[in-house]
Amino acid sequence: MLVFRISSDDSQFPSDESRDEKRLPPMASDQSTQTATYELPLSRERSAETGTGASQRPPPQELLAQNVSWFCQLRWLVIAILVSYGILGLFQGLTTYFGLRPAGLWPFVIAAALTASNLIFMYFARSQTSATMTTINLWGQITADLVTLTAVVYFVGSLETSIAFAYLFHIVVSCVFFGRRQSLMVTLMAIGLFAACIAAEYILKMLPAMSIFAESPFDRNTPSALAVLALNFFLTIAIWIVVWYLTSHLASAVRQREFELAETNRRLVAAQEERSRHMLATTHQLKAPFAAIYSNAQLLQQGYCGELPDEAMQIIQRIAARCRRLTAEIQEMLQLANLSSTGQESLARTTIASTDLLLWCISQVDPIARERSVTIKADLRPVPLVGAEDHFKMLFINLLSNAVIYSHKNGHVNVSCRRGPSAEPVVAIADAGIGIAAAKLPRIFQEHYRTKEAVQHNKESSGLGLAIVKNVAHMYNIRIRVESRLGVGTKFELTFPVPDGREGNTQ
Amino acid sequence: MAYVLIVDDDDDFAHTAAMVLRQEGHDVQIELDTGDASQSMQSKRPDLVVLDVMFPEDASAGFELARSMRHKSENLRDVPIIMLTAINTKFPLGFGAKDIDNDWLPVTDFLEKPVDFDLLRQKVAELLGKPKAAD
Fold first, then answer.
1. Predicted pLDDT of residue B90
2. pLDDT (average), residues B43-68
3. A288 contact B CB<8A
4. Are A408 and A432 within 8 A, CB to CB?
5. B-chain residues within 8 Å CB-CB of A338?
6. Contact B115 A20 (CB under 8 A)
7. pTM over 0.80
8. Helices in A92-222 by DSSP H: which ranges?
9. How far is Cα A21 from Cα A166, in angstroms, rounded to an integer?
10. What does the alpha-carbon distance between residue A417 and residue A378 come to, in Å, rounded to a whole number?
11. Residue of chain B minimizing CA distance to A344
């Protein structure tokens, strides 16, 4: 499947010119005689868009939709406060004790209006998923909230108390969730409503002056009191505007950062994918020449070109052996690269019978075991393993071939599979081979690490096998315990997670 | 004696494989490009095709050729195909016998590069022995 990714990618880029020249299709001969031009497109074109408009970029729609619901929940809190205040007002003694005016009906009326609007908004938030509907819902909520808040501000005491600062909640929240233009709109809407309330109350005197306090600390009709109130009003507005300016500025800076971060992340992911594609292509390029050398060596070896002297034969055997080893090493590098990249997680996980899998893996290492007269004894009980079969094959084949390769001639390897004390699958692979010194045990899973003893015993290894094992183990939360004694043998014990419904968490 | 077509852009490999199969007594033709191979097949139907996957101009040209043989040509539908791959057939990096599929991967068998000539001889002999193996 990966091959297809390469193919789609390759088609975007012209391949090596030298190669292209060689294989012009015969049909196209008249076209190929005409001069054609091709310009390699710049790869950095994308970067132009990052700088501009990012700060104006609204947050993603899902985030807004989430917040629509959050606002609805917050509103229940406001409703609860209003109702509590209304109930408190029913107790005459309490209100007079605190110097308050009996609240009367307004907290209940506003709470009821808020409840009704909140229910409507919640209904829309749940049923409407389109972006425009979410936006309409959000602006509907903001408008309704500001109007309701203005009513509360009027009843609590628009200038006598600090209630007007409650508008700041809306201003700040809109700065965080909207672009600067929209948050300015919210701020201006708040100023407009507050100014209208003040005008109706103090200037036009359309509404009776209201306050929660039983007595106003000063007489509203004296010119000095009016001056204080006017100053309060303009100060309040000025503070809002400053808060809007600061918050929206910071929020857009944060949003810009967030955007850049997401962009960087996207590029990193793309680079990672590109790298693993490149790795696959490189491997193909590397393997092909070795395959060619190997096939030529085989021709000589198998006498297709006549009898060769023994010495020449030995050299050819060495060439062929080295070729095979290099090919195997490239293969391992490729496996490791694919395991390390995240793309491979998409492989389907199935439940695999441990006995079949282990028997298959043992059959794969059987030829090298025969070569070395090593016997493999298996004591397998069926245990289900959950994962990608190919990954487990890699895991077991690497461990089994290590056990065989590092055994002495006529040695034996024991493979067992059973359930542990809490029904977890446990696979153990033990050899009576060269063993590993205690000090070197922690390093054996490192890439390309090989102990001196291992190199002496077997030169043909890349030191990547256990790194592959480590990667598969990490992928499936497999615990590996290594028990070894130099000159006596090594035992790898693998404890798999219990395969129940939780395998989704094992990553 | 059978007529075998080897389609591989690596002429080193193609020539060695041809040498081995000629020694077996087969008539072998080499094509380094799938387009040429397609034309050659039209003029003379091979008894067996040894086909590589990746070609310089198209990394899946081998698949395309196999598919067009199976689906677009009455004459070539039953020709057994051995697909060569430098990608391991055992591990999750490529594909193996289990991926053989009449639509997606309509080949008869796989052979991994570097090719073991004993295995090549064996598979060729097997497939020529039962020409209906294509299904």
1. 39
2. 88
3. yes
4. yes
5. 92-93
6. no
7. no
8. 92-97, 106-127, 131-156, 167-177, 180-198
9. 74
10. 8
11. B92
Q: Which residues contact A358 (CB under 8 A, 6 or more apart)?
A: A378, A380, A396, A415, A417, A427
pLDDT of residue A6: 35
- Between vectors from CA B54 to CA B52 and to CA B58, what angle results, nearest 5°? 130
Whether B85 and B110 have beta carbons less than 8 Å apart is answered as yes
Mean pLDDT of chain B: 82
Contact residues for B58 (Cβ-Cβ < 8 A; gap 6+): A7, A10, A11, B34, B64
Which residue from B17, B88, B94 is facing A3, i.e. has the nearest CB?
A: B94
Residue A20's pLDDT band (cuts 50, 70, 90): very low
Instruction: Return the number of other C-beta atoms located less than 10 Å from residue A63's C-beta.
Output: 11
Residue A10 to residue A316: CA distance in whole angstroms? 36
Task: Report pLDDT for B34.
Answer: 92
Amino acid, single-letter form, for residue A454: A
β-bridge mates for residue A351, sequence order: A386
pLDDT higher than 80, residue A381: yes
- Within 10 angstroms of residue A224's Cβ, the number of other Cβ atoms is 9
The alpha carbons of chain A give a radius of gyration, in whole angstroms, of 38
Do strands A479-485 and A412-419 pair parallel, antiparallel, or not at all (unpaired)?
unpaired
Mean pLDDT to the nearest integer, A403-420: 93
User: What's the gap in Å between the CA of B106 and the closest CA on chain A?
Assistant: 15
DSSP per-residue codes, A310-356: HHHHHHHHHHHHHHHHHHHHHHHHHHHHHHHSGGGGGSPPEEEEHHH
Higher pLDDT, A6 or A119: A119
Cβ partners under 8 Å of residue A288, min gap 6 = B10, B13, B86, B113
Q: How many residues does chain A have?
A: 507
pLDDT confidence of residue A13: 38
* Three-state SS letters, A142-170: HHHHHHHHHHHHHHHCCCCCCHHHHHHHH
- Determine if residue B95 is left, alpha or beta; phi over 0 gives left, psi from -120 to 50 gives alpha, anything else beta: beta
Q: Nearest-CA neighbor of B87 among B68, B105, B69, B67?
A: B105
Nearest residue, CB atoms, B86 vs list A20, A288, A338 = A288
A294 touches chain B (CB under 8 A): yes
Chain B residue closest to A285 (CA)?
Answer: B86
Q: Residues A464-495: pLDDT tens digits?
A: 889 989 989 988 889 999 999 998 999 999 99
User: In this structure, which amino acid lies at residue A141?
Assistant: Q
Most confident of A1-10, A62-71, A345-354, B8-17: B8-17
C-beta atoms of B114 and A11 within 8 A: no
Q: Is the pLDDT of residue A181 over 60?
A: yes
Instruction: Determine the 3-state secondary structure of A274 from DSSP.
Output: helix
Q: Is the pLDDT of residue A220 over 50?
A: yes
Over residues B78-92, mean pLDDT: 69
- Answer yes or no: is the ipTM higher than 0.85: no
pLDDT on residue A279 = 75
Closest residue in A to B38 (Cα) is A25
- Residue B103 pLDDT: 66
Q: What do you get for the CA distance between the two ends of chain A, in Å?
A: 23
Using CA atoms, how far apart are residues A370 and A357, in angstroms rounded to an integer?
20
